[in-house]
Design brief:
Length: 499
C-alpha cells in the first residue's frame, strides 16, 4: 500500500508531460499517415518498378500501412491502457524517460515508416541498386522497437524490480516477444546482405509480409486488452468480475452458484441447517456472490440477509430473490448489531484469505447470537502444500483478481474459527466433490473453447483455462482439499452468586 500511495503522489507531473508528448507524436503521425494512405497507388507502383509483381506489391503495401498504423495505434493505446489499469511506474516520470518516450515515438511511428514510403513512391530509385538499404528501410518500422525494448529490458529486469509484479509481467510477456521479433528482423537483413543467397526485392518483400502479418496477428491477439483497453467496471472488485460472464459459461450450474459443487453443494449445505432461523431468528449469508444459495435459503427461511462486497453481484441477487435483504459491505466490517443472527452461512468466500482472516471470523462471531449455527464450505490447503506450490497458487489467484491470494491451511482456518468462540460440531472432507467439479469445468471449457475465445478477451480466457488446470492439479495431488464445517457459537453468561 505504501508503494501505491507513493506512485500516486509522484505521478501527475511526469505522467502529464509524457502524455502531452505522446499526444503530439500521435497527432503528427496520424496526419502523416492520413496524407500517405491516399497515395497507396503510387506506393505500389513504386514497388512494381523494383521488379515486384503487382499482386505482391499490393499485399506488401497493405501490410506496410498496417504496420504503420499499428505503431500509431500502440502509442495512442498506451495512455488509455495506463489510465484503465492505473499503471504509472515511477521510472517513466523522470525527465530522461519523458524525453526518450517522445523521441522514440517520433522515430517509431513517423520517421522510419515515412522514410521507406518516401523512398519507394514514384520510381523507387533509392532502392533499385541496393538490396540491403531496401531491407533495412522496409524492416525498420518493426525493428525500431528492439532498440527501445533493450533499454526497457535493462531497466525492468525482474532481478531489479522484484517488488513490482506488473513490471515483471510486462518484462516477461511483452519485451521478450519484441526482442524475438528484432532478432528475426536482424537475421533476415543479415541474410539479405550475404551475396551467396542471391535474393531480390520480391524475396525481401515476401519475408516482410510474412513477418508483418505474424507480428500484427500475434500482437493484437495476445495484447487485445492493451490495444483496446476499456475503463474497469464500476465495482469494488473490478478485476475479478471481468471474468464473471466467462465463469457463467464454465461453471456447471452457472454464475449464480459460483462456488465449488454448484447447486448440489448448496442444497446439501442448506439441508444441514437446524432451522434456528426459521424459529424467529435471522439467517445471514456472508460473501453471498450472485445469490444461488441465497435463493435456496429463501425457500427454507423467510427473507434471508445477504452481504457481499460487490454491488454488481448484489443486483444479481435481487433479480433472483426479490425478498432478500442485501447489504453491500466488507465481510470484515459488517454493519449489523451484536448477536443479531441465529444462522450464518458461507461458501468459498475468499474474504478470509490473507491478513484479514481473523478480522472476518471475528465479525462473524460478533454478529452471531448465542447458540448460533455457522455452516461453512470452503477449499483449504493441506499439510502437503509446499512453499513453491503455494507461491505459484498465489500468483495465479492474483492474476484472476482474487482479493486474497493466500489459501489458509485447514488447521489454521479451524483454529481461527475456534479462537473467536465457535465450537466445531462436524467436519466433512469433500475433496472428491471439488476435484470432480474442477474436471467438469475443464470439460465445459473444452466443449466451448472456440466460442469463449470469440466472445471474450483472449488473455482472460487463457488465464482462466490455466487456472482450471492448476486447481484440478491441486485437488488431484492433495495440495488442496474441500471441507464443510458446522460450528456453534457459545456465549458464556456470567452466573450471579448473589449476596
Amino acid at each position: 500500500m505504501k508503494q501505491e500511495r507513493s506512485n500516486a503522489a509522484a505521478s501527475p507531473q511526469g505522467t502529464g508531460n509524457r502524455r502531452r508528448y505522446d499526444e503530439v507524436v500521435s497527432f503528427v503521425a496520424a496526419i502523416v499517415f492520413g496524407t500517405a494512405l491516399p497515395e497507396y497507388g503510387s506506393f505500389t507502383a513504386g514497388l512494381e518498378s523494383l521488379g515486384i509483381g503487382p499482386a505482391w506489391a499490393r499485399a506488401g503495401g497493405v501490410v506496410f500501412f498496417c504496420v504503420f498504423f499499428r505503431n500509431i495505434h500502440g502509442l495512442i493505446a498506451y495512455d488509455i491502457w495506463a489510465d484503465a489499469r492505473s499503471y504509472n511506474p515511477p521510472f517513466e516520470q523522470t525527465a530522461r524517460a519523458v524525453a526518450g518516450n517522445f523521441l522514440f515515438g517520433l522515430v517509431a511511428v513517423l520517421l522510419t515508416p515515412y522514410f521507406f514510403f518516401g523512398g519507394v513512391k514514384d520510381d523507387g530509385s533509392m532502392f533499385k541498386d541496393n538490396l540491403v538499404v531496401f531491407a533495412l528501410a522496409l524492416f525498420a518500422p518493426l525493428a525500431v522497437y528492439v532498440v527501445w525494448d533493450l533499454y526497457w529490458y535493462a531497466r525492468l529486469r525482474p532481478s531489479r524490480r522484484k517488488e513490482d509484479a506488473e513490471l515483471r509481467k510486462f518484462t516477461e510477456d511483452w519485451l521478450y516477444q519484441d526482442l524475438i521479433l528484432g532478432l528475426v528482423c536482424a537475421i533476415a537483413v543479415i541474410l539479405f546482405a550475404t551475396p551467396r543467397w542471391q535474393v531480390d526485392h520480391s524475396t525481401i518483400l515476401f519475408v516482410f509480409i510474412v513477418a508483418g502479418v505474424s507480428v500484427l496477428g500475434w500482437d493484437y491477439l495476445t495484447h487485445v486488452n492493451y490495444y483496446f483497453a476499456v475503463p474497469p467496471a464500476q465495482d469494488l472488485l473490478p478485476r475479478f468480475y471481468e471474468y464473471g460472464q466467462i465463469w457463467d459459461r464454465i461453471l456447471p450450474d452457472g454464475l449464480h452458484f459460483c462456488h465449488w459443487g454448484g447447486r448440489h453443494a448448496s442444497e446439501e449445505l442448506v439441508g444441514e441447517l437446524d432451522g434456528s432461523a426459521g424459529k424467529g431468528g435471522l439467517a445471514l449469508e456472508v460473501c453471498c456472490g450472485h445469490g444461488g444459495t441465497c435463493s435456496l435459503l429463501a425457500d427454507a427461511i423467510q427473507k434471508p440477509v445477504a452481504v457481499d462486497i460487490s454491488l454488481m453481484a448484489l443486483r444479481d441477487v435481487l433479480t433472483r430473490v426479490p425478498d432478500a435483504r442485501v447489504v453491500c459491505a466488507d465481510a470484515g466490517e459488517m454493519p449489523f448489531l451484536d448477536g443479531q443472527f441465529s444462522t450464518l452461512v458461507m461458501q468459498d468466500g475468499d474474504a478470509w484469505f490473507g491478513d484479514g482472516a481473523e478480522t472476518v471470523f471475528g465479525e462473524c462471531a460478533r454478529v452471531a447470537a448465542d447458540r448460533c449455527q455457522f455452516v461453512m464450505q470452503t477449499y483449504v490447503a493441506t499439510e502437503r502444500m509446499t512453499e513453491e506450490i503455494e507461491k505459484e497458487t498465489s500468483k495465479r489467484l492474483r492474476g484472476l483478481g482474487y482479493r486474497g491470494a493466500t489459501t489458509p491451511k485447514r488447521a489454521k482456518l479451524l483454529g481461527l474459527l475456534e479462537g473467536v468462540g465457535f465450537n466445531i460440531e462436524t467436519e466433512r472432507n469433500v475433496r472428491d466433490m471439488y476435484l470432480e467439479d474442477a474436471k467438469r469445468m475443464l470439460q465445459r471449457y473444452r466443449e466451448s473453447w472456440y466460442r469463449l475465445h470469440w466472445d471474450f478477451l483472449w488473455e482472460e480466457v487463457s488465464d482462466l483455462r490455466a487456472w482450471l488446470i492448476w486447481s484440478a492439479h491441486l485437488f488431484e495431488h492433495g495440495y488442496w482439499t474441500g471441507v464443510v464445517v458446522t460450528a456453534r457459537r457459545e456465549i458464556a453468561v456470567p452466573i450471579s452468586t448473589g449476596t
